[in-house]
Design goal:
By secondary structure, the protein is of the alpha+beta class. It contains eight helices and eight strands, in the order H-E-H-H-E-E-H-E-E-H-H-H-E-E-E-H. It has a five-stranded antiparallel sheet with strand order 5-4-8-7-6, with helices on both faces. A three-stranded antiparallel sheet has the order 1-3-2. The longest helix has about 30 residues, at about 75-105. It is elongated. The N and C termini lie far apart (about 45 Å).
């Protein structure tokens, strides 16, 4: 008989194993350390099953076995996941009032992406209040070659991220998407020199985006702040005012993130 999980009704064995692993991770996250017997009793499982899954978690860095005794604690990879989530929450909390002020001043849709390695993920967006409102889906991973925020990742990310240009699949989302690697390298160098990026009709026809980088106190790229609107209101060459407003807002978020907890 499949074990009854606190997450729902009786489940299949494969799903049951996944749920047990998640429950073990949750238990370790709440305790300074825990033994196999203790975990098995708390989760209503057997010591053999718990021990088997703990060995997998240790091998993958999600758990650590203490040097003395049969006790386990949360591993470095679990800590990294928690820190990533915490930093995302801090970024959104710090950026939101600045985004609201920027929207009131400009009228465009305002976007916030969190950068982790070579991935820029949309974590917040405020719909514009102009004649035309462009919606942006939170949770979207930005294409690095066809999006203003993605270009910032290639321009200001860690050195190994720049090498992504040689491995990217340069999909043509529109006829304006940059699909030639030499042209993309030149574009990224231009972005690096000017400190901001845009992508007129490169991802969606009729839409442009203008983005500026957000850094932490170590000058590591952690996010991007952007304006999104119809090409009619955010032209192929953004105005000096648009560029100044988004870059100054991104710099303000950077200053706040340097002291945020």
């Amino acid at each position: 008989m499949p074990r009854r999980s606190p997450h729902g009704p009786d489940v299949r064995p494969g799903v049951q194993a996944v749920l047990l692993v998640l429950e073990i991770i949750e238990h370790l996250a709440k305790q300074e350390s825990a033994g196999v017997t203790e975990i098995a009793r708390a989760l209503g499982s057997t010591k053999a099953r718990v021990h088997r899954h703990l060995r997998t978690l240790v091998d993958t860095g999600y758990a650590v076995q203490e040097a003395v005794g049969d006790r386990y604690r949360a591993g470095p990879r679990l800590t990294v996941l928690a820190e990533m989530r915490m930093s995302e929450n801090v970024l959104v909390k710090v950026a939101r009032p600045i985004m609201q002020r920027l929207r009131e001043a400009m009228g465009h849709t305002i976007t916030l992406a969190k950068v982790t390695g070579s991935v820029a993920n949309m974590v917040d967006a405020l719909q514009g209040n102009g004649l035309i409102n462009i919606g942006v889906r939170v949770g979207l991973d930005l294409p690095l070659h066809a999006n203003a925020g993605g270009k910032l990742v290639l321009a200001f990310g860690a050195p190994e991220v720049s090498a992504e240009i040689d491995r990217l699949t340069l999909e043509a989302y529109t006829e304006h998407t940059i699909t030639e690697r030499g042209m993309l390298r030149a574009e990224i160098e231009r972005v690096r020199q000017q400190g901001w990026a845009n992508a007129p009709e490169e991802f969606v026809i009729g839409v442009n985006a203008l983005s500026a980088p957000i850094f932490d106190k170590s000058h590591r790229l952690i996010g991007t702040l952007g304006l999104v609107n119809s090409i009619q209101f955010l032209g192929r060459r953004p105005t000096a005012e648009q560029i100044a407003n988004v870059t100054e807002a991104a710099e303000e978020i950077t200053r706040h993130m340097a002291v945020a907890r």
